[in-house]
Amino acid sequence: MRQVKKVLNSSVVLAVDDSGRESILLGKGIGWGAKRGDTITADEAVQVFLPLGDPDSRALIELLSSIPSEYVLLAQEIIALAGTSLKVDLHPHLLLALTDHLHFAVEREKQGLRVQNGLAWEMRSYYPGEYGIGMQALQLVNERLGTHLPEDEAANIAFHLVNARNDASTSFNALRAASLISEIVTIVSYALGHSFDHNELNHRRFVTHLQFFADRFFASSMLDKDGGFLYGLMRVRYPQAVACAEQVRQHVQKEYEQPLPDEEVGYLALHIERLRDRDSFQGESS
Fold it and tell me: Which one, of 212, 244, 202, 239, lies nearest residue 103 by Cα?
């Protein structure tokens, strides 16, 4: 038996059991009208996340406190669909990553920032199972939320599914990727004059983007098909973020002797601006 400790939103609560162990309980409507101390029965919770000492669980609490519950419910449904259809073991961090991605994708659409996935063809060809789930997920999101996310989002969702597979055959050179990610984080930190809190949610979001970036970079599959549209838009709207992203481009060209297309720089600037906008650096107030 568990008791409500805190309502995160209408479908998610933070609960504690008789031994004092905390957990996140997820279920449609379980937080509606609930108060601290109320009892939650086992059949009310669709999913339970333990233990809360895990960084993903703590980050999930922060995320669920800041976005509408329908995103986590959609992510949960997509993950269940993928697990059943693909018959693969998916890493638990996928719920956090996919929930955040769906929310960010919808927010981008509202702002008119449409980002093309230059690897959509490759995803359809090399990961047809994951891409098929991505298409089903895209239909779910557009129907449930009344959005009009483009078909490229199916490839983005497929990326998350592939990245979450506990399968060494899908991984890339982790050592080189980790080095590149560390270099970029250092450049962004110095450029913006702040230190990253490595346990903070928005830092983890940024690193997730950099993981996909590193994957494309070392596979020589950079995004370069939007004719500079995103870069131009970001340069007008968010010049500071673009200036920071340009420092990354200069570093990569110098150290790796590989140019970065404007689309990649624009996408990087988009995520840097997200960091700035959400006060995600250590020492800033929320």
Answer: 202
pLDDT in tens, 165-186: 765 544 445 557 778 888 999 9
SS3 breakdown of the chain: % helix, strand, coil, rounded to 5? 60, 10, 30
Contact 69, 26 (CB under 8 A): no
Tell me the pTM.
0.65
Residue with tokens 């609960």: 15
CA terminus-to-terminus distance, the chain: 35
Which residue from 268, 263, 262, 181 is spatially nearest to 218, judged by alpha carbons?
181
The answer to whether 118 and 222 are in contact (CB under 8 A) is yes
Cβ(45)–Cβ(25) under 8 Å?
yes
* 33 burial level (CB within 10 Å; 0-12, 13-18, 19+): exposed
Residue 9 pairs with which residues in a beta bridge?
12
What single letter denotes the amino acid at residue 213? Answer: F
Please report the pLDDT score of residue 157 as a whole number.
Answer: 94
16-30, 50-64, 132-146 — which is least confidently predicted?
A: 50-64
Asked if 94 and 161 touch (Cβ cutoff 8 Å), the reply is: yes
Q: What's the token pair of residue 119?
A: 């690897």
pLDDT value at position 115? 76
Strands 47-49 and 22-26 come out as: antiparallel
Q: Say which amino acid occupies 35.
A: K
60-70 tens-digit pLDDT: 777 777 888 88
Instruction: From residue 116, give the alpha-carbon distance in Å to each of 135, 196, 204.
Output: 15, 28, 23
